[in-house]
Write a structure and sequence with these properties.
6-stranded mixed β-sheet, 20 helices, 14% strand
Length: 585
């Protein structure tokens, strides 16, 4: 009788999906992996077993990622491709877990979190986003850091405070450990094994001590969280306003004047009492042209030189009412409005002349109340097929997978800009910026908390691609962890939402609407004093020690397994030789 494989594996998919948005049933994540984990001990083997494990992953990622298709008709291919690629890490996980389990050293309550966290880290950086690749010249930020187990617990504030020790990976480790422990107990039950059409249970390594250890770790994490949450009020920082309009991507691309008019009205309103007004990603529709410092300015084409002058005149017009930019209003009366007269962080498209062509960048530009540019940050972690096409020179046909008809390959940024900010009361602050999905990469955010920590973080994003789907809520849930990991507030300005102010404990303390769901697909703003936290984060300083430890343990287990197999082979050979010799006359 064949053991049951596909049904348990497929049950995990919808269970884990329910733990994320749109249902947001986080506690389910503590048991969601249990059916799939039965494959680790299954007496079956071969392609059928691993195909079942892979299908379990597809059953999760296919519905979880369905919001990707909303962005553009070509994104249906991205949705299906991503939903078929991500489960490959589950497939690898099943293989590693079975190999580790054969050593009979540790129960699933230990092996599952070690393997799961190791592979979450791998998925977030695969194939060229691992920081150590910087030393061999192969580094380019890439990877998919969404849908970690830890993100399901974003509302459990007392638990997720451990993110300042080990990042979101620490929370994932706990959730995976609970799943592994429950699976271990069930798989020791002969009744459960009989329902799976397995043989009777075999004794294994210490289940009770492991259960006590996992329970103790969970309790200690909650206690640590309660201690971290038990503090005095935060020091009030600068007053920052994040503006948000509900502009679909098609309208954003086709009506630049209308896009600017909507955001400029919000900016003028917000600038009356704000020390800083933050625009979402690429929602300032006028480009910003610069020249590479290595290029002779005299070689710049005359048309580009004029564009650079006009850019700056336009900026001064909007920021300070400079009449030199009035030529713009002769053709676009709808753009006329009172000047901002305060610091404004603009999300825009930058273009740098490198001597041969205009190289685009996804840029955050800080301008002061006089319209002068103060500092800029260029996005580092570019979205594949959204902001660049891999192998564009050798495989130009890959352009069909992008939502653009033209080449829109951005150049990644190279520096972690610390933006300076002087408030109206004379106090000075610094802040870092994360553009779009950079807030899903813990590595980027913690750079602003490691050395020369900033006072707060800003996340600007254009989520108008996703038209009110669960992507908006999931994106905000992810960002909460960056606040805890760095112990810095995060100000989010997001086209179509959800704009928000997140305090250093991970609380969403200011929204455009009353709830998360009513704060998307609306025009609005948040304006509040940013909470300033003086605490330092161990995770920001040390980094991804937990995934590294998990990979080290797996490497040690692999070496031990090789030694054990060789020892067993040598022992078998010795016994065979001894028996052969004993039979000789």
């Amino acid at each position: 009788m064949k053991p049951r494989l596909f049904l348990p594996a497929l049950i995990t998919g919808p269970l884990l999906w329910a733990a994320f948005f749109p249902l947001n049933l986080g506690p389910i994540a503590s048991i969601a992996l249990v059916p799939w984990l039965t494959l680790v001990r299954s007496p079956a083997s071969g392609k059928r077993l691993y195909f079942a494990g892979y299908l379990g992953g597809v059953a999760f990622f296919l519905p979880a990622l369905e919001w990707v298709r909303v962005a553009h008709p070509m994104m249906y291919l991205s949705w299906v491709g991503l939903a078929l690629a991500c489960p490959l890490f589950w497939l690898l996980g099943l293989f590693i877990l079975r190999r580790v389990d054969q050593l009979r050293l540790v129960p699933l309550g230990i092996s599952v979190p070690v393997v799961w966290v190791a592979l979450e880290y791998a998925r977030a950086h695969f194939p060229t986003g691992f920081p150590f690749l910087q030393h061999v010249g192969l580094y380019q930020m890439i990877g998919f850091g969404w849908y970690f187990l830890g993100y399901t617990q974003h509302e459990f504030l007392s638990l997720i405070q451990i993110a300042d020790l080990g990042g979101v990976y620490a929370v994932s480790f706990l959730v995976a450990a609970v799943n592994g422990t429950i699976a271990e107990w069930l798989l020791r039950s002969n009744r459960v094994r009989a329902s799976l059409k397995w043989e009777a249970a075999m004794p294994g390594p210490g289940l009770v001590p492991t259960t006590a250890a996992v329970g103790g770790l969970f309790a200690a994490s909650v206690v640590y969280g309660l201690i971290q949450l038990n503090h005095g009020g935060f020091e009030p920082g600068p007053r920052v306003a994040a503006i948000q309009a509900s502009v679909e991507q098609s309208d954003k691309m086709e009506d630049a004047g209308g896009l600017f008019a909507r955001y400029n009205r919000l900016c003028v309103k917000a600038s009356k009492d704000a020390d800083l007004v933050v625009w979402p990603e690429t929602c300032y529709p006028f480009g910003w042209y610069t020249i590479d410092s290595k290029v002779n300015a005299a070689s710049v084409p005359a048309e580009l030189a004029k564009a650079m002058i006009k850019d700056r005149q336009v900026m001064r017009l909007f920021a300070a009412g400079d009449p030199q930019g009035s030529w713009l209003l002769e053709h676009h009366r709808e753009l006329a409005a009172p000047p901002w007269r305060t610091n404004v962080l603009l999300g825009l498209n930058g273009y740098e002349w490198d001597g041969q062509r205009e190289v685009p960048t996804n840029t955050a530009l800080l301008v002061d109340g006089n319209g002068h540019d103060v500092a800029r940050y260029d996005k580092m972690h570019l979205v594949i097929f959204g902001e660049y096409v891999p192998f564009r020179e050798t495989l130009p046909w890959l352009q069909v997978f992008t939502p653009y008809s033209h080449d829109y390959s951005c150049r990644p940024g190279e520096s972690w800009t610390r933006f300076p900010l002087q408030a109206r009361d004379g106090k000075t602050y610094t802040f870092g910026c994360l553009i779009c999905y950079e807030d899903s990469d813990p590595y980027i955010a913690r750079q602003y908390g490691a050395s020369a920590p900033v006072d707060f973080l800003v996340n600007i994003s254009n989520d108008g691609w996703f038209n009110g789907t669960e992507e908006h809520e999931e994106h905000l849930a992810i960002c909460r962890f960056r606040a805890i990991e760095t112990r810095r507030s995060v100000v989010r300005a997001v086209n179509m939402g959800i704009s928000c102010l997140i305090d250093p404990d991970g609380r969403a303390i200011a929204l455009p609407g009353e709830t998360w769901s009513t704060s998307k697909k609306v025009d609005g703003m948040i304006s509040a004093n940013v909470p300033i936290d003086g605490r330092h984060s161990i995770y920001a300083r040390i980094g991804d020690w937990l995934p590294a430890t998990c990979w080290l343990l797996l490497a040690i287990g692999h070496v031990y397994g090789m030694w054990k197999r060789r020892s067993a082979h040598a022992s078998t050979a010795s016994i065979t030789m001894h028996e052969t010799l004993s039979r000789e006359p």
